[in-house]
From TrEMBL, chain A:
Keyword ATP-binding recorded: no
Any single GO BP term: anaerobic electron transport chain
A GO term from the CC aspect: plasma membrane
Full protein name: Nitrate reductase gamma subunit
Organism: Archaeoglobus sulfaticallidus PM70-1
Principal localisation: membrane
Localization, UniProt: Cell membrane
Membrane topology designation: Multi-pass membrane protein
From TrEMBL, chain B:
Lineage: Archaea, Methanobacteriati, Methanobacteriota, Archaeoglobi, Archaeoglobales
Domain 4Fe-4S ferredoxin-type: 87-116, 156-185
SUPFAM superfamilies for this protein: alpha-helical ferredoxin
Gene3D superfamilies: Alpha-helical ferredoxin
Organism domain of life: Archaea
Protein name per its UniProtKB record: Putative sulfite reductase-associated electron transfer protein DsrK
Source species: Archaeoglobus sulfaticallidus PM70-1
GO molecular function: 4 iron, 4 sulfur cluster binding; metal ion binding; oxidoreductase activity
Family matches, as PROSITE patterns: 4FE4S_FER_1, 4FE4S_FER_2
Keyword terms: 4Fe-4S, Electron transport, Iron, Iron-sulfur, Metal-binding, Transport
Length: 320, 546
């Protein structure tokens, strides 16, 4: 048992973490190396032009003029999914679009749950457990449901673990059940969901059904973090499964669309201010292109242009 | 009648067949050229004139597109180049999660039901190739990673679908990462150009613009003739002699407008509107025959052609010694002027930009701070400022025969953020203004269906289908409020929307915003007027004929 423990508990997580870190850095490096030739911000609100012209607070962030407005736009995008909030669905044959928020709701629930679950996991890695982690635990376990009848060790349910699972199931459901979504979903879209579902289910099973020895888990987590992993750890099956899913996900991450989490910071339609006419953007690889200049133009249309000169450069109504 | 002209009754009622497929099917290129959905190839003459790579006669209908022998290599190399030059390209290729928020936001998808017109799938057409040649997973897992081989059919498919995108950026508004399929389309067209594939409509206009200074290919004399007709018309309507400076050195302002305004209908009324207003304000301005075009069809083709056309305005501004530039009502022109123009400037005309001054409205003294770097002000910003300061005498009741709604043109909506200016201007000169439903205006505005070079005749069916959501929104306000006039600050809209309204049998007319201002403006010394600029009687509600 202990050899498997070492492989699954130590080697694989280390390899996966290595691929994850190097891979993500490499991709980010690749993006940052390529140029941003133009300011192509997508303007989703009234521009700043005449100072008295009506510009609502949301216009300022949907069409930012200053750097701080741009930062808020990005934050709204990252934490509130501003663009998805706008989602509409086109209805044929009524020929109108109606607002739809399901993707926004479940997308947001999924990402926030995942974030909170991740932060909760700090308690395995850090001793003493930081205050914000324990506070978060308390908030997350707001509904204390005594489940002694089910599992004696359980006192409360952590909400985000469950919402994570529900949101993932919805995201999978829409790809399988909706015709449009089925049309463009690639195998890689399912792989990402299946891996995440694997992580979530094994995690939940450990917590609620097959309890694992938490002190073992903590010892391993802290050992891994301090680069002194315990020798021959003896791990529960469910925990090993959980670790395997997590490791696969980490190793897969840099090669997949999951990179969107880093990519959104690089999206030029969102991270640039709409001040294109006030501040000149310089294209780093700009090069001269020869066009037709005035002299060449004049040569080509000499007669016409001379005639305009004879008119004194003015066009007047003809005498009736 | 050529075989491309589609008679209206041919397609009285088209059906939208939504096809749902799966990822494996979508990886197979669909290279079939269907009438009404593919564009003609650029003419040899234009390709040669613009020094494009591999100029030749070819047709999309031919089996053999006469691609250069190493075309595959060229495309891959070009892709490599683009991913280093455009962060947008690399990031947009890498991070799409296929959430589908963009899928039914494209008016071409709504109107055709073709899954390859979903923005996410449109991008996948290119992304699948990118994966194959530039990512590990694509190289190893092939189609299971959503990657596919680059073949001639893929090129044909690109030609079809990247010319079924009007670069309207509506998809980008809804994408949680701001992935802009318009940007992907622009880069795909750049790739196609690298192996000598260009679309006829864009290239004809672009070549004409480089040669003559405007998309229509009018000689300077032709431009002057148009202005001549305009001042004659103004005299007939108002009895006032309006003089229009052309190529005049030392004026304060250089005025550029899309060349469609010079004679197309209903652009014309906006054109005479500008001239009337400038006269009334006694503005010291000039037009130019060298920079006779505000628009830039090169923008729909490639970086280089776009730059070729763009430089004229600054060069002319310097030659004439003006202080700043005022731009007429146009859509893509303003996307370019706002987001690209000053960036395009290179050392061959850097000094031209420097010779300009920060724009100040000579009539009101307002500083256009937001244009302090590019020195280019939008006519509606200018007019909003003028109307706010009450510098024109306005009789709103002269527009009482109209119930007005405003179509936000894609480029100035999502590439500039010009929403309130037109509304402020219209409401200052009209008593009856109604917005279309929320999902169809402002940043969510639907394209007219004919932008980015898709105004070509051969794309008629695509255009009418793509314009359907817009037409339906107009229909809604027409039925509810009796709207009989749509405004749009875009020359392509003014060409596309009347046809669209006619096709969808809506008794609604359309025109530019400035036209309404000129209509309501009382000029000093004008004769009694009982019609609007178009000759419609003032006063009673205008019944537009279908
Ligand atoms: S909305 Fe953005 S992330 Fe979602 S499928 Fe479309 S392009 Fe991809
Ligand atoms: S830019 Fe407009 S036309 Fe192109 S894919 Fe997006 S929504 Fe469709």
């Amino acid at each position: 048992m202990s050899l498997i423990g070492t492989v699954v508990g130590v080697y694989i997580p280390y390899i996966a973490a290595f691929i994850f870190v190097v891979g993500v850095l490499y991709r980010v490096f690749q993006w940052s190396r390529s140029a941003v030739p133009f300011n192509i911000t997508t303007t989703c609100g009234q521009q700043y032009s005449l100072p008295w012209l009506k510009r609502t607070w949301i216009d300022r962030f949907d069409s930012p003029f200053t750097w701080w407005e741009t930062v808020i736009r990005m934050l709204m995008e990252i934490f509130l999914f501003r663009s998805l909030w706008k989602n509409v669905r086109y209805e044929l044959p009524a020929q109108k679009a109606v607002s739809t928020k399901w993707l926004w709701v479940f997308g947001l629930v999924f990402h926030w749950s995942l974030l909170i679950v991740l932060i909760r996991h700090f308690r395995f890695f850090l001793e003493p457990v930081p205050w914000f982690v324990s506070t978060l635990m308390k908030l997350d376990g707001f509904f204390e449901v005594h489940m002694d009848w089910f599992q004696p060790h359980m006192t409360h349910i952590l909400i985000t673990g469950l919402t994570l699972l529900v949101a993932l199931l919805y995201l999978l459901y829409r790809r399988l059940a909706f015709p449009k979504e089925r049309t463009f979903s690639l195998p890689s879209d399912y792989i990402a969901l299946i891996l995440l579902l694997g992580v979530a289910t094994t995690g939940l099973l450990m917590r609620y059904v097959y309890p694992v020895d938490v002190s073992e888990v903590k010892a391993l987590a802290q050992g891994l973090l301090s680069f002194h992993p315990p020798a021959n750890p003896d791990l529960d099956l469910m925990f090993m499964l959980h670790l395997l899913f997590v490791s696969t996900l980490l190793a897969y991450f840099p090669f997949s669309k999951l990179m969107h989490s880093a990519g959104i910071f690089f999206s030029p339609t969102r991270n640039m201010p709409n001040n294109c006419r006030a501040k000149r953007h310089v294209n780093p690889w700009n090069y001269p292109v020869k066009g037709v200049d005035w002299n060449e133009f004049y040569e080509n249309f000499k007669d016409d242009l001379d005639e305009i000169e004879q008119m004194g450069f003015v066009v007047r109504p003809e005498e009736y | 009648m050529s075989d491309t002209e589609v008679k209206f009754e041919d397609m009285e009622k088209f059906e939208i067949v939504q096809r749902f497929s799966n990822w494996k099917e979508l990886l197979k290129p669909s290279a079939e050229m269907r009438k009404g959905f593919y564009s003609y190839a650029a003419s040899l003459k234009d390709q040669e004139y613009l020094n494009l790579p591999f100029p030749r006669e070819w047709s999309p209908l031919d089996d053999d597109w006469k691609l250069p022998p190493n075309w595959k290599e060229i495309i891959i190399n070009k892709m490599d180049e683009l991913r280093k030059k455009y962060r947008s390209f690399q990031v947009f290729m890498d991070i799409c999660v296929r959430c589908g928020a963009c899928a039914d936001k494209c008016h071409y998808y709504i109107g055709t039901g073709d899954p390859k017109n979903m923005p996410v799938v449109r991008a996948e057409l290119l992304r699948s190739i990118y994966r194959k040649y530039f990512t590990k997973t694509g190289k190893v897992f092939g189609e299971y990673a959503g990657a596919r081989e680059l073949t001639e059919d893929v090129i044909k498919e690109w030609y079809i679908y990247y010319f079924q995108c009007s670069e309207c950026r509506r998809c980008s508004v809804f994408c949680p990462y701001g992935i802009d399929t318009a940007e992907i389309t622009m880069l795909a067209r750049e790739l196609l150009n690298s192996i000598g594939i260009s679309q006829r409509f864009t290239l004809t206009s672009a070549a004409a613009c480089v040669r003559t200074g405007n998309h229509l290919g009018l000689n300077p004399g032709g431009v002057v003739n148009s202005i001549q007709y305009a001042v004659d018309d103004i005299k007939e309507i108002t009895g006032i002699d309006v003089e229009v400076p052309v190529n005049k050195k030392g004026a304060d302002i250089l005025f550029v407008t899309p060349s469609g305004d010079y004679f197309a209908q209903p652009h014309w009324f906006t054109f005479i509107g500008y001239l009337m207003i400038f006269h009334e304000l006694d503005l010291d301005y000039t037009m130019s025959t060298y920079a006779a075009e505000g628009g830039n069809f090169g923008f729909f083709h490639s970086f280089e052609v776009a730059k070729k056309i763009n430089q004229k305005i600054y060069k002319e501004a310097k030659r004439l010694g003006v202080k700043w530039i005022l731009g007429g009502e146009c859509g893509h022109m303003w996307r370019v002027k706002h987001q690209y123009m000053a960036t395009f400037v290179d050392d061959t005309y850097e000094d031209a930009l420097k010779s300009l001054e920060e724009p100040v409205n000579p009539i009101t003294g307002t500083k256009f701070e937001n244009a302090s770097s590019t020195k280019m002000v939008h006519i509606l910003e200018f007019l909003a400022d003028i109307l706010k300061h009450k510098k024109l005498k306005i009789d709103k009741s002269r527009n009482d025969h109209l119930r007005v709604t405003h179509h936000d043109s894609c480029n100035i909506a999502r590439g500039m953020g010009l929403f309130e200016e037109p509304r402020y201007v219209i409401k200052s000169v009209c008593n009856y203004y109604y917005d279309m439903p929320d999902h169809s205006i402002r940043e969510k505005s639907y394209c007219c269906g004919s932008g980015a070079g898709l105004l070509a005749d051969e794309l008629f069916e695509l255009r009418m289908r793509g314009g359907m959501p817009r037409a339906m929104a107009v229909k809604y306000v027409h039925e509810r409020y009796g709207v009989n006039h749509v405004t749009a600050a875009c020359a392509i809209d003014r060409a596309a929307i009347p046809t669209l309204l006619q096709y969808w049998k809506l008794p609604v007319q359309m025109g530019g915003v400035t036209e309404l201002v000129a209509n309501a403006m009382i000029m000093s010394g004008e004769k009694e007027r009982d019609t609007d600029l178009r000759g419609n009687p003032l006063g009673e509600y205008l019944e537009v004929e279908v």
